[in-house]
Amino acid sequence: MSSNETLKVLQIASSGMEFFHEQVRVLRGLGIDCDVLYYPPDSRKKKQIHDGLLRKVYGHNPIYYAIRGSLFYPKIVQSTLQTDYDIIHVNSGVVAPLGLLQPQRPIVLTLWGDDLLGNRLAGYQSEITKICAKRSNEIIVRNEEMKNVLPCDATIIPSGVDTSRFRPMDQTASKKAVGWNAADLHVIFPYPKSQTKKRYHIAEQLVEQANMALDETVQLQTISGVDHEDMPQYYNAADVLLLPSLREGSPNTVKEAMACNVPVVSSDVGDVRERLDPVSNSYVCSDDSELKDALVTVLQTGGRSDGREYVEEVSLDRMGERIVAIYESLLEDTEDHNQEII
């Protein structure tokens, strides 16, 4: 690829997560021509029924994923035959084997966290991810823990936050906008209750303990299924973000709260300690007792954090620039290798 040509990348992803949408958007803004394939590729009801039957027969195990992968394979072949992509960028270890189905183009593999550190498929997912990582040309991970787990080298690039969207707003006006009681204290838990690793039941217990320790009423606000563009209003209405999670990669919720100058109380997971280390009125905790004490302290003292001062390093633009640098370096290495063969 010459310097004046547009770099063409096929993005393969396991789902349409908001942070993946934003990654594609910022890469396109930087001049990268991105096509996207989602696995599973079709959300129509007929396909959902078919997938549901597969899952009922085989369960979430390697056989189920192998069958789904074989059904997805023609789409990858068709895409790579129709378009001369420079790079295949596979996003998530769940779809990592699919990138290897085409051996002609260099592969960038981004791991999100649970695909490497979690216990999916009774631990098999982590092992499959490691095998695929060794066969990829470049690997991107979210934090140092993930890098240390891999059997090969990787580049740490935290997921990025849109600092133009997530910014400080007036808290009183934000409470009114989202319909929260202006007299109460509000703890935001921006995840579905069903996500086991987020430990909603612990969040409930911590807020109950905070209510017993404080004179004011503390409300736990569970937010999910809200349009991402509306989330800044919810963050700004909150007094603190609570993340008692078991494991994370580089949680965007923490960085979004930082960008809004909202205090954060979190368990010590992923890159949270690195992100919050310089931030005022925010705490990273080793156990549930520390989480309770930190939550009470933040609610008791009041005030915002200075997180926005430290979030630029993990802005969307910075993330995009670093990914593009990996693309360009990989293509240079590939071209040099091809020249040596010639």
TrEMBL record:
InterPro entries: Glyco_trans_4-like_N. The keyword Transcription does not apply. The keyword Hydrolase does not apply. GO terms for molecular function: glycosyltransferase activity. It comes from the Archaea. Residues 21-165 form the Glycosyltransferase subfamily 4-like N-terminal domain. It is an enzyme of class 2 (transferase). Pfam families: Glyco_trans_1_4, Glyco_transf_4. Keywords: Glycosyltransferase, Transferase. Its EC number is 2.4.-.-. PANTHER family: GLYCOSYLTRANSFERASE (PTHR12526), GLYCOSYLTRANSFERASE EPSF-RELATED (PTHR12526:SF637). This is Glycosyltransferase.
